[in-house]
Specification:
This protein is an alpha/beta fold. The protein is 38% helix and 12% strand. The strands form 2 sheets. Strands 1-2-3 form a 3-stranded parallel sheet, sandwiched between helices. 27% of the residues are buried.
Length: 326
């Protein structure tokens, strides 16, 4: 931490560039449609510097991602140390201007995650979608201290990070091993390519970012969510058009394989929605299943509602006998 504190004062281009590049790479994997987002920093505070290290890092992350940086929060200059025990003494966080985009809140280092949580809750309170990320997350454990390790000798990037690096939500980069614009000579070739797609879907679930807080410590965790198969997804994976896929269904020897592939995709979506792993309403429309709710009774009349008189009070029975409603 001593080395990191020195860096925060020096603001060396090398460390800032490395940190921004690492964070941007992870955010591309975690956040879908990232070009629609903006980047903000937590409020500058204990450094008493309007261009504190965290804000400078956030600006660079935005630049690498090619999206706007917005200063959402007013700076909050305070004295003392940035320690969780001191946070209750901080003045309330003030939103400078409500952003018009969903916001990725960036912090340099998160030990408790309190600043990120505070920023996210403030934005959500005013209806802004948020995601949070820190370059370094974690604390030096007692065992490491007992072993005599000097925190100053550790690189900032050696800290615990909670963002995995699977292909994740970047589905457009997925490609089969058959190359671009493939021609499948036999049904077996098409089946082999489809199996690659099935395996890719299974091995690359969607990633949802969630802020997890436990005993005063917080971190952004990636939660895997089931990825639905689709003909459009298969065609993207195979690098062919939907019309080309339809043509394979008409070629001699191919209809049985095409039908089997489509049935498996149907089955995966149906079973996923039945188990509440996928959005049932969206999948029902995709599969052409009725998603109906009864609004009229038999023959177009009102819906009948039967009530047992045994469950009614004497007052209710007297009111009905007198011609009252309900």
């Amino acid at each position: 931490m001593a080395a990191f504190k020195a860096e925060k004062k020096a603001k060396t281009d090398e460390v800032l560039s490395t940190a921004a590049s690492e964070l941007a790479d992870e955010l591309r994997k975690m956040v879908g449609g990232i070009d629609k987002w903006a980047v903000a920093s937590v409020a500058c505070g204990h450094s008493r510097d309007a261009e504190c290290w965290g804000k400078t890092l956030a600006r660079r992350v935005a630049k690498v991602l090619g999206i706007p940086f917005v200063q959402v929060f007013e700076d909050r200059f305070v004295s003392g140390s940035s320690h969780p025990k001191e946070f209750k003494k901080l003045p309330p966080l003030k939103v400078k201007k409500k952003p018009q985009r969903p916001v990725i809140v960036v912090d340099d280092i998160a030990t408790s995650g309190w600043h990120l949580e505070e920023a996210m809750l403030s934005l959500r309170d005013i209806g802004v979608s948020t995601f949070a990320a820190a370059w370094v997350s974690g604390t030096l454990g007692k065992q490491e201290s007992a072993a005599g390790e000097d925190p100053a000798q550790r690189s900032p990037s050696d800290g615990q990070t909670d963002m995995p690096a699977p292909l994740g939500n970047r589905f457009w980069e997925a490609r089969s091993s058959h190359g671009r614009n493939p021609i499948f000579a036999t049904p077996d070739d098409l089946w082999a390519a489809a199996v690659e797609y099935f395996e890719w879907v299974d091995g690359n679930p969607l990633q949802e970012g969630a802020l997890v807080t436990y005993k005063g410590f917080a971190s952004v965790k990636a939660l895997p969510k089931m990825r639905a198969m689709s003909i459009a997804g298969l065609c993207n994976f195979l690098d062919i058009s939907r019309s080309t896929w339809a043509e394979y269904g008409k070629r001699e020897g191919f209809p049985a394989i095409v039908s089997r592939i489509e049935d498996l995709i149907y089955q995966q979506k149906f079973e996923g929605s039945a188990a509440d792993l996928l959005n049932a309403s969206i999948i029902a429309r995709e599969l052409g299943l009725p998603d109906r709710q009864e609004h009229t009774g038999k023959g177009g009349g009102p819906i009948e509602k039967r009530v047992s008189i045994r469950s009614m009070s004497d007052e209710d029975l007297e009111r009905i006998a007198a011609g009252g409603s309900d």
